[in-house]
Specification:
The chain has 333 residues and is an alpha/beta fold. The chain contains 10 helices and 13 strands. The protein has 2 domains: 176 residues, 3-Layer(aba) Sandwich (Peroxisomal Thiolase, Chain A, domain 1), CATH 3.40.47; 150 residues, Peroxisomal Thiolase, Chain A, domain 1 (3-Layer(aba) Sandwich), CATH 3.40.47. The strands form 4 sheets. A 5-stranded mixed beta sheet has the order 1-7-6-4-5, sandwiched between helices. It has a 4-stranded mixed beta sheet with strand order 8-13-12-11, with helices on both faces. The longest helix is centred in the C-terminal third of the chain and has 22 residues. The site of acetyl coenzyme *A (ACO) has 24 residues, from helix 2, helix 7 and strand 12.
Length: 333
């Protein structure tokens, strides 16, 4: 067996899925007091996908996982560990990972969820890499899946225009090829700022009551301006520190896949990091912010569009509730 602490960890397969139903800005403007012009100029978003007809977070995640396994040429028995990043699990327990395990027909392997909001995919990527390096696993399936439409307050125009549903997945595999794959990941959090982006109701602190439902506390709440300012600063810092650690300059980076939250955040990051916007494959115009699904969804599209080639340095950068943030550097194999 190849794996162990000296092996390289590569993305052996990648896939994504988004529900069929498209909700355009024009349609949203019939639900809340907003306009296509306001949403596009403030965020870059034109439309988002919305789960329909009982489609669950685990259904969406399962579709992405199946695509990733197919791309990797793997069968259910090849997967040794499943980790799911989500902030919209089907239910508090069992974990969405266990539900997806059953839908995929995986063996009795370890399955668990990670709660790091929009940074969740990079958190799972790092956990998956470290567990592969333990030598106890061969192939790890990681999934970022969200049904954010279920926690949107469709009366709150400051948040409901920003988010959408979707999923992305990758199969991580240990290979004996030094210098390729996931070169390093940096994770960070600052819980002291957690209140600027949260869902106060529905947890053990505020179990559902008639009052909590009437007060609409089971929906995502966000102080947008504060989030914006911190997001730009910490994503830039995290990514630049990671590059320095690996002796890579911004010019060496071929492709940047940032968390797809807001076009203005990406434009600012591009300027401040000295990385031309052409290096940022962008799909937030079509999906909005899909939280933990955002990076793998964009990564899969960039890969399918031929924007990532063998030997490229790919930089992934995330930010989300917690607050959490992360970056990851890959040399594509
Ligand atoms: N349509 C029309 N008007 C609106 C809308 C809307 N959808 N939303 C807010 N407005 C109004 C406000 O009420 C306000 O009106 P007022 O001046 O009369 O009070 C005005 O527009 C300006 O509102 P601001 O909040 O100042 O708008 P801003 O330019 O800051 O943009 C936005 C808001 C888009 C939310 C921005 O702050 C942002 O993108 N923040 C970052 C959010 C983010 O990236 N979150 C994701 C990271 S974490 C995660 O993904 C879970």
């Amino acid at each position: 067996m190849i794996n162990g602490k000296d092996s390289s960890i590569v993305i052996g397969g990648i896939g994504s899925y988004a529900p069929q139903k498209i909700l355009s800005n024009q349609e949203l403007a019939k639900i809340v007091d907003t306009s296509d012009e306001w949403i596009r100029s403030r965020t870059g978003i034109r439309e988002r996908r919305i789960a329909q007809n009982g489609e669950t977070c685990s259904d969406i995640g399962t579709r992405a996982a199946q695509a990733a396994m197919e791309h990797a040429g793997m069968k259910p028995e090849d997967i040794d560990l499943l980790i799911v990043a989500t902030m919209t699990p089907d239910m508090p327990f069992p974990s969405t990972a266990c539900i997806i395990q059953t839908k995929l027909g995986l063996r009795n392997i370890p399955c668990f969820d990670v709660g790091a909001a929009c940074s969740g995919f990079l958190y799972t990527l790092e956990i998956g890499c470290q567990m592969l390096k333990s030598g106890d696993y061969r192939n790890v399936l990681i999934v970022g899946a969200e049904k954010l439409s279920s926690i949107m307050d469709w009366r709150d125009r400051t948040t409901c225009v920003l988010f959408g549903d979707g999923a992305g997945a990758v199969v991580l595999t240990a290979v004996d090829r030094p210098g390729v794959g996931i070169l390093g990941t940096s994770l960070a959090a600052n819980g002291a700022e957690g209140k600027i982006l949260n869902m106060p109701g529905g947890g053990s602190n505020e179990p559902a009551t008639t009052e909590s439902v009437l007060e609409r506390r089971h929906y995502l709440k966000m102080m947008g301006k504060e989030v914006f300012k911190i997001a730009v600063r910490v994503m830039e810092q995290s990514a630049l520190d990671l590059l320095v650690r690996h002796n890579i300059t911004p010019e060496d980076v071929d492709c940047v896949i940032p968390h797809q939250a807001n076009m203005r955040i990406l434009e600012l990051m591009s300027t401040r990091m000295g990385l031309p916007l052409e290096k940022f494959p962008i799909n937030l115009d079509r999906y909005g912010n899909t939280s933990a699904a955002s990076i793998p969804l964009a990564l899969n599209e960039a890969h399918q569009d031929g924007k990532i080639k063998s030997g490229d340095y790919v930089l992934l950068i995330a930010f989300g509730a917690g607050l959490t943030w992360a970056s990851s550097l890959i040399k594509w194999h």
